[in-house]
């Protein structure tokens, strides 16, 4: 296995393998990482292949599909958990 | 209030890069790779595009971790080697590239608008091959939106491309219908990931299976291997059962299953709950991805055995639109073998259509017929459920993007919406980022309840943008002057 890298998940620095699909990281640590638009219900990965957009998450300030994105050293991920605690909006 | 869907990344003032080729191939799975090799072999200039970071599609998806047990499987090698051959032939391979708009110009040529990692590209092509693959055909059931409920294909993708673990604590349940479940169970076994329960609607009898393998004996070893790996996974097998509810508050916690009666309905008196479940991977089969071919206006047919609406093609892979070819699952489900063969056929035909010397490959045409026959017989053993397997409570969601409930859809139908398009306009189901790809099967099943057949309900013809795309990129591509007005 390659050297782990450091990323930030909801403000916490964590160590993960490089190049890992973000769904792999989020399924383990924050399985309901998104909120639905009307009901504010928790959602997570569903199709896992870029078509449903249920797994959208904020990475370095941009919305992206967690299933299509891979871990890079220094990346900052923000889920609904942090937006909720910060009183922010939803995706 | 729902927020705008295109605020992923905006690069104001960006300019689209124009790329020229003879043949553009959309999708680098087994079909697209074979099409690319065949077309490039005739001397045609080829651009091959794929949404993912590496060619391979779903069948040959490439692991991301060096220590993955999937780094050297035959399927993974197939794509790796094909990609190397294509690169050696000068085929331009664009990965992480998503087509969001396509048009045929009056001069007969095509333009594809592509979003690639924050950049806009417009591809000029003499011909296009749609090898866009298939996706899960999700059928809604109570609790299906809970985090932890994922597609069977999603589970496989995560095991193959991730660390080999699904992540959530708790037991894992694999459920649904069809032979793909065995392939997923095999992936669990190979990844060394625990699989606790397999819940399958139907288990074909020995006599049925015998008929299939007498006609196609060469496929027997593969099937026996699947069955051996299923056993090795040690999953408890619940045949003739279905999942009737996913239970949990904010995340999946338990799964309710029930045996199916002779009428095909679950016998709720005998339902029971599997506790402590972290992941439910569920799949009732697949459907062709036809957004590119419907946008371009090619003719589509409907056949439940082929996954619903599929792009119609002739023996040469040509669609009803001259210059547009389709290969692989886009033309109806069949698996990797028909995909490879139809890819080769379409690649040669597209090149021939542009004047390159390319004789039809009669062997491939014959082999395709045989591969399609196997796929059809296999599909017949597990007919895809067309109706909702169980009646949904009014508050259950059909459209996950816009949070549209089954009761909203039933009300729209009662008020006179008799087509998928009308339901979409009345309820917003299908207007979210997934563009109806995820809710399509559920919506069509609710229309079926009201007596509207899938064919009468029709499909939502895809339109710009085929996939949510940053507005700056859409603007850059559309301002390129490459489009007929």
Task: Please tell me about this protein's structure.
The complex is a heterodimer of chains A (91) and B (485). With 91 residues, chain A is an alpha+beta fold. Chain A has one domain: Beta-grasp domain (Ubiquitin-like (UB roll), Roll), CATH 3.10.20.30. Chain A has helices spanning 22-29, 80-85, and strands at 5-9, 12-16, 34-35, 42-43, 56-59, 62-65, 76-78. In chain A, strands 2-1-7-5-6 form a 5-stranded mixed sheet. Chain A has a two-stranded antiparallel sheet with strand order 3-4. The longest helix of chain A has 8 residues, at 22-29. The model of chain A has no long low-confidence stretch (mean pLDDT 90). Chain B is α/β, with parallel strands linked by helices and 485 residues long. Chain B contains 14 helices and 21 strands. In chain B, strands 1, 2, 3, 4, 5, 6 and 19 form a 7-stranded mixed sheet that branches. In chain B, helix 1 runs parallel beside helix 2 (74-88), helix 4 (180-191) packs across helix 6 and helix 10 crosses helix 11 (420-427). Chain B starts with 16 loop residues before the first strand and ends in a 7-residue tail after the last helix. Mean pLDDT of chain B is 93; it is low at 1-10. Classes of the chains: A alpha+beta (91), B alpha/beta (485). At the A-B interface, helix 1, strand 4 and strand 6 of A face strand 8 and helix 3 of B.
């Amino acid at each position: 296995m390659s050297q782990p890298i450091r990323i930030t998940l909801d403000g916490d620095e964590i160590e993960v393998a490089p190049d890992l699909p973000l769904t792999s990281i989020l399924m383990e640590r924050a399985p309901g990482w998104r909120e639905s638009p009307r009901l504010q219900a928790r959602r997570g990965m569903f199709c896992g292949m870029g078509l449903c957009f249920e797994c959208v998450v904020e990475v370095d300030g941009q919305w992206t599909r967690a299933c299509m994105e891979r871990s890079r050293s220094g990346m900052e991920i923000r889920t609904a958990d942090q937006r909720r605690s910060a009183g922010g909006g939803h995706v | 209030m729902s927020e705008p869907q295109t605020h992923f990344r905006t690069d104001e003032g960006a300019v689209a890069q124009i790329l020229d080729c003879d043949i553009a191939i959309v999708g680098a799975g087994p079909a697209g790779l074979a099409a690319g090799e065949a077309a490039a072999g005739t001397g045609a200039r080829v651009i091959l595009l794929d949404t993912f970071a590496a060619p391979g599609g779903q069948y040959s998806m490439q692991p991301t971790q060096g220590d993955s047990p999937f780094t050297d499987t035959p399927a993974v090698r197939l794509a790796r080697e094909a990609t190397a051959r294509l690169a050696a032939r000068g085929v331009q391979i664009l990965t992480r590239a998503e087509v969001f708009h396509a048009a045929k110009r009056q001069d007969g040529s095509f333009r594809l608008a592509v979003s690639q990692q924050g950049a806009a590209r417009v591809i000029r092509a003499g011909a296009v091959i749609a090898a866009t693959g298939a996706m899960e055909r999700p059928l809604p059931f109570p609790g299906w939106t809970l985090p932890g409920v994922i597609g069977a294909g999603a589970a496989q993708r995560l095991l193959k491309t991730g660390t080999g673990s699904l992540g959530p604590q708790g037991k894992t349940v694999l459920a649904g219908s069809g032979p793909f479940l065995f392939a997923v169970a095999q992936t669990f076994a190979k990844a060394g990931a625990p699989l606790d329960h397999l819940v399958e609607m139907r288990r074909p009898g020995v006599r049925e299976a015998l008929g299939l393998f007498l006609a196609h004996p060469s496929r027997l070893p593969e099937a026996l291997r699947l069955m051996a790996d299923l056993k090795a996974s040690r999953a408890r097998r619940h045949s003739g059962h279905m999942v009737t509810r996913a239970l949990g508050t904010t995340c999946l916690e338990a799964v309710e299953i029930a045996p199916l009666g002779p009428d095909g309905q679950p016998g709720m008196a005998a339902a029971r709950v599997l506790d402590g479940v972290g992941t439910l991977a569920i799949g009732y089969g697949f459907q062709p991805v036809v957004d590119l071919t419907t946008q371009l206006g090619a003719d589509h047919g409907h056949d439940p055995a082929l996954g619903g609406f599929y792009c119609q093609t002739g023996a040469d892979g040509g669609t009803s639109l001259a210059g547009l070819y389709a290969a692989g699952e886009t033309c109806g489900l069949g698996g990797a073998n028909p995909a490879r063969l139809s890819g080769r056929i379409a690649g040669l035909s597209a090149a021939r259509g542009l004047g390159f010397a390319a004789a039809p490959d009669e062997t491939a045409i014959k082999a395709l017929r045989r591969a399609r026959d196997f796929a059809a017989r296999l599909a017949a053993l597990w007919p895809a459920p067309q109706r909702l397997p169980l009646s949904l409570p009014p508050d259950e969601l059909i459209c996950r993007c816009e949070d549209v409930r089954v009761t909203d859809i039933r009300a729209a139908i009662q008020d006179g919406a008799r087509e998928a398009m009308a339901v979409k306009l009345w309820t917003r189901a299908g207007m979210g980022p997934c563009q109806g790809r995820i809710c399509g099967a559920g919506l069509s099943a609710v229309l079926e309840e009201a007596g509207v057949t899938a064919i009468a309900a029709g499909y939502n013809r895809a339109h710009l943008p085929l996939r949510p795309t940053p507005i700056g990129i859409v603007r850059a591509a559309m301002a390129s002057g490459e489009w007929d007005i």
